[in-house]
Every structure is written in structure tokens, then in C-alpha cells.
Amino acid sequence: MGVLDRLRLDNKVAIVTGAGRGLGREMALALADAGADIVAAARTQAQIDETAQLVRTKKRRCLTIQTDVTDSASVNHMIEATLAEFGRVDILVNNAGGATRGWNKPLEVITDEQWHDGISLNITSTFYCCRAVLPHMIQQGGGKIINVTSGLGVRASRHNFMYSTAKAGMINFTRALAMNYADKNIQATLILPGIFPHDDPQMTAFWQGGKFIPVGRPGRDNELGPACVFLASDLSNYMNGELIALEGGGLAGGEVPTGFAPVVPLLERGKS
Amino acid sequence: MSLEQFSLRGKAALVVGASTALGDAAAIALAEAGADVAVATGLPTPLDTEATNACANTIRALQRKSFAKTIDGTSESEVASLVQQTVTELGRLDILVNAPDLPFAKPLAEVSLTEWQRVLAVNLTGVYLSCRAASAPMLTQQAGRIINIVSVLSERGMANGSAYCAAQAGVLNLTRALSLEWARNGITVNAIGAGWADGMGMIADEQIKQQLARYIPNKRLARPHEISDAVVYLASDVTGFITGQTVWIEGGVLSRL
Asked: Shortest CB distance from B3 goes to which of A4, A175, A244?
């Protein structure tokens, strides 16, 4: 089978949390394009209904399950409902999350509630989803878990305590998954999306059109789907515990101004 | 999204280091995905030449254009004329893959300056030369994909591996620097961090292979195509927002203590 054929996800079932909008929807649609049937999970039924409609236009099945990923009973129900409908689950994309709890606040004023809610939404949710899905993946003989982290998971930024902590946690949680379930043919990997304004003019303005990003633009939604398909497909079978970052070069140089490119001639000491 | 977006039809690639297991697999995977692929070895030995010629034959059997060339990969003029010949024979240059792999391990106290310089020259300086030569056509067309294949020893140390480790780490940070330099020119520069793979120069010994496999969470060495599959992904049009990154494909070895 040729290299491009091995991208196909025919007869596979993928759960995407936070599939009602943004990157989650984009990944769900890309997985469907590659041939997978989709389980779209999120809190807001109307949004996952829309995602489901879009999946069905691609001639793939889509089950919507209203889910609160911070509630383990709700997550367990999500997995049971998936198995009841499809009888299997091959791919889990832990995409649900959010940065707003305690965002842009100094540590001293972050409340207990903001901290716990944020950690619960971003990382405990992933623990719940993985705990519920692993027995089935093990029984099936394998699976792919794709976690979503952030540039803030590897670098810090001003007044972003909860999100930086949770997203860094996501990375090492993924390594732990990789190392512990490798022998069960389960691969755990990460996607690290940089700035993706989702064609929202307000967001694009907020991020200044991405002019501070080395490549000079923010990410496009349709760049995320292919990364997800790559990680969900047989093309990444030896990739385990590792991440693909789509962020336009920001992590390569750290926080230096874009275009910072000094020219320093090589001078021998003692010579002019 | 269509899976056709991953196709490399109409693109021209150059793989330097095509006599190595990973370079060979990368060249063939690029051709399978539709690209025409020039293949070269920077190590002018009969064995490397033979392997590179065989690689070109495989590519032609896939109905893609190819030619094989043996050069001194550390020679400025020979690398420049290799890139020139690629542009002439394939019509353009969209993708450069660097996969040099001169293995070397010895206690540092016994490493001669000549050995050190040779390991650095093949594994690091050669990459600089081919990136520089390929940047000319890529900057003109304001588009390109450069993919440097490194080993996990670019990130982890190994006793007796000093020169090799230093060279590999050099390629990794060269990759990051170039990604920023050409970020506004449509050229992405990324690395693939290969785990211990079958056919790698550093691990010919069967007993060492078995020891390694026990240590790797995936409990086996990588098959070369598992590394080169990611070359196809990074070479495609869908990765314009990925640059300066290392995609690690190592069966979990960097995840464990």
C-alpha cells in the first residue's frame, strides 16, 4: 500500500471532545474526510448537531453526545454510547479545554474556583476520557489518543497560570500514556496549535493578524485537520509520546521580536 | 480537507544521504507520494554509490524521474553542482531532505582532532552546505520544504558518542535558526528526530539491537518507512504553519526516564 493510502481511516471510529466549534470541529471533519465515523462530544447540543450535519455531508456517520468532560459519569456515558452505536473506538481526540479561568490575572488573585475549574476542564477531563476508553482500546488491540496542548504548555506567558500548568501537564500525561500503553499498541501523541483565530475578525485583530509570528500570519483552520489525520493514521505508528506543533516558528527562537536578525562579522581577536 | 492535499505530484525533491536506511526510505516515500526525486550520497564509497543507484532505480520503477549522484558531501562546489543538476534535470527544487549518517563512537580521550572534524563535517557541515545551496532556488520561488533527519542523540547524550551527539545537536539548532531566517520566505525548515531504526549505522550489532528494543517503550526498533512517512507529511503543502520543529518518531524513548 502506498504512503498516501495509509492515511485512510476507513472503518475507524473517532471521538472528538469539544467538537462543536473551532479546532475540534475542524479535526472532526478532517477525520471524516479521511474515512472515519465520528462521535462529536461537547456541552452544547446545537453546536455538535451542526458538526454532525457537516460530517454527514461527507457520507460518514456521526453520533452526537452531549457531554460534560469535567464529570466522570458523563464521560463514561460518552464512551458507552459510542460502543453501543459503533461497537468500537479507535481514535480519541482530547480537544475540550479552555484558557479563560483565571486568564490574565496575577497569581495572588486567582480564586480556588477558577483554578480548580480550569484544571478540571483542561486536564482532569483528559484523565477521565482516557480512563474510560483505554480498556476498550486494549481489548481491541490498539488505538490512538491525540491530546491537544498549547505553546503555553512548553513556555510561560504573562498572567497565565492555570492554562500553562494544565497544558504542560497534558504533555507529560501523554508521555506517561505512551510509555505505559506502548505494548498494547496504543499510541498517545499531541497536537500543539499556535494562534488560530478561526476567521473571526475580532480574534484576528486581537492577535494583530499574526504579525509577531515568524511566518507572518496566524494558523488557518484547514492546517489543523491534516495534522490530526496524520497522527490518527498508520503513518505515525512509531510516534509515541511526542507532539506536532503548528505555530509558525514561534517556539524555535523563543520570545525574540520577529525579524530579529543581527549581522555580526567574524573578526579574529587582535585583528581589525 | 482532501487527502489529495498530502500528494506531492508535480514537486521535485533532493535527498542527500540516500544511501542510509532512512535517506533511502525517505526518497522512495517522496516518490510514492508523487514527487520526482534526485538522490545523492555524500560519502564517496562503492557501497554508498551502489545503494544510491539502487534507490534511484526504485524511484524510476515508480514512474518518477530520478538520478543518482555520488559526491563529497563536505565539498562546497560539489554540493552546489548537485543542487544545480537537480534544478536542471527535474526542472525545480521544492523539497530538500538531509539524511547524512556517519556513525562514530569512541571514548573522547581517544578521539583525534581529525576524527572529530570528519564527524562534524559529514553530519553537520554537509547539512549547512546543502541548505545554503538549496536556499537559492527556494528563495527565488518563495517556497520550499527542508527536512533534516536527526537521531535521538541530538537530544540525549550517549557515552562514547560525543562527536556524533555534538553534530546531531548542531543540526537540530541549525534547523531552528534557519526556520526563523526564512520564515517570511515560504520556506519551512523542520527536523525529524528518528528513534533507533533498523539499518542505522550506529547499531549494526544484533545484540545491541536487542538491548535497545527492551529499553524502547514500543519494544522494537523503528522500520525505516515509519520515519520516512513523516517526511511525506512535512514535505506536503499542508504544513506551511509548521516550522523550526522536530517531529520525534522514536517509539516513546524520549518519554521515559
From this structure: A4
Q: Return the minimum-mean-pLDDT range out of A27-31, A81-85, A101-105, B128-132.
A: A101-105
How far apart are the CA of B39 and the nearest CA of chain A, in angstroms? Answer: 19
Question: CB burial class (10 A; 0-12, 13-18, 19+) of residue A135?
Answer: exposed
Domain presence at residue A67: yes
Q: How do the domains of chain B map onto residue ranges?
A: 3-249
pLDDT digits (tens, 9 = 90+) for A145-173: 999 999 999 998 889 999 999 999 999 99
Is residue A264 assigned to a domain?
no
**Closest residue by Cα to residue B252 from A256, A237, A159:** A237
Give the number of other Cβ atoms within 10 Å of residue A218's Cβ: 21
Cβ-Cβ contacts under 8 Å, B230 against chain A: 230, 235-236, 239
- Predicted confidence (pLDDT) at residue B212 exceeds the cutoff of 90: no
Cell of B42: 555524500
Integer angstrom CA distances of residue B22 from A126, B12, B134, B192: 35, 19, 20, 11
B153-200 pLDDT, tens digit per residue, is 999 998 999 999 999 999 999 999 999 999 999 999 999 999 999 888
Vertex B167 angle, CA B165 and B170, to 5°: 110
Restricting to B residues 106-135, those with a Cβ less than 8 Å away from any Cβ of A are none
Return the pLDDT at A248: 94
Q: A241–B239: do the CB atoms touch at under 8 Å?
A: no
pTM: 0.93
Is residue A105 scored above 80 in pLDDT? yes
Name the one residue in this structure whose C-alpha cell is 476508553: A133
- Which residues of A are the active-site residues? 163
Closest by alpha carbon to B73, among B103, B51, B43, B93?
B43
Please tell me the CATH superfamily of domain B3-249, with its number.
NAD(P)-binding Rossmann-like Domain (3.40.50.720)
Residue with cell 525533491: B13
**CATH of residue A70:** 3.40.50.720
Does any domain span residue A63?
A: yes
Q: Which residue of A has its CA nearest to B174?
A: A252
**Which pLDDT belongs to residue A271?**
60
Q: How many domains does chain A have?
A: 1
Q: What pLDDT is stored for residue A30 in this prediction?
A: 98
In a domain, A248, yes or no: yes
